[in-house]
């Protein structure tokens, strides 16, 4: 299955998951540094330092990317490095990304920069975090610092990565930083994250005239177990609303869905929706699995905020990743086709799975089937322009610590030795031939 000749092939990472050096060159604490210190959810005392030690080994890692033939690299910049404690710009923090961008360009790799991948400065969290409207304006300040410095070399910009996780896992379920279980704060975080996206886009347009800019959402197709069962249909609609529509509708339609988190309407101030719905140049789609929902059973998340007290996710007869996630590549086709009429190009900005071992045949099979699913979407008229594998390196995998390995490249965390896996070699051949055989 061949892909368009100009298809973008890349891999993705996030700053907190790979950089380490969390106290170096003026960096302050992020919410994840604080969360790691106090939460038992991060196992065995794991923290984001040293992670994959990318801050020191950046040149080696870029050489690895080049050896695999990557044409693009999606990475995030660490807010606590660039504006420590949410305050003034830190030139030493910007210097690292200066070097990274220059090294990428010297190796013929296009930098795809994500501004926010979950590492809010802890000082801003102590002022309310994403539940505080002011945080959106501090994000605009941060965006100004980055764009003013890198506008001459970076074309592709992403405002936010997966605001669903930041709002709901961080402020409602409490299983991600900052570890809060406050439904009202989660609702506020949804709007303030989307406002940050709108304000960030405004700054990007002002400072980077040539920018190709958008947002990345984790989108999961949601279907009822029995389409004829009203309770299943209602539960699926509620989950789809919280997972997908509450972020897609404001970006593309300038409104929040009426049936999801009614408190959102009280947070909207004049001009907010115009900012949030300003045109984007592309939509990034992160896909890992789909959901089939029934209307009976225990809720997946606290019923106070999910809006579907009896939504349940019955297991199916599908293979599982090491994370326990069901593998259904057809869901990628479904979600891409569902976005076909949104009027913007699409990129798969994350897709991957956790499997052990350097001879990772399971990951090869996962990537093979999902790339075929992406190609099917292209055949159905979807304007899909690129694919980024998650992840380049084994890394600090959030609340899983170092227990789950998503990398194309194995990292021995004791020695920081890098070893390309079988999947990396397979992916390099896909890039070289522009097809899945």
Automatic annotation (TrEMBL):
The active site is at residues 162, 350. Coiled coil: none annotated. GO terms for biological process: cellulose catabolic process. Its EC number is 3.2.1.21. It comes from the Bacteria. GO terms for cellular component: cytosol. InterPro entries: GH, GH_1_N_CS, Glyco_hydro_1, Glyco_hydro_1_AS, Glyco_hydro_1_beta-glucosidase. It holds the Pfam family Glyco_hydro_1. It is an enzyme of class 3 (hydrolase). Keywords: Carbohydrate metabolism, Cellulose degradation, Glycosidase, Hydrolase, Polysaccharide degradation. GO terms for molecular function: beta-glucosidase activity. Substrate binds at residues 17, 117, 161, 288, 390, 397-398. It catalyses: Hydrolysis of terminal, non-reducing beta-D-glucosyl residues with release of beta-D-glucose. Belongs to the glycosyl hydrolase 1 family. This is Beta-glucosidase. It comes from Solihabitans fulvus. The lineage of its organism: Bacteria, Bacillati, Actinomycetota, Actinomycetes, Pseudonocardiales.
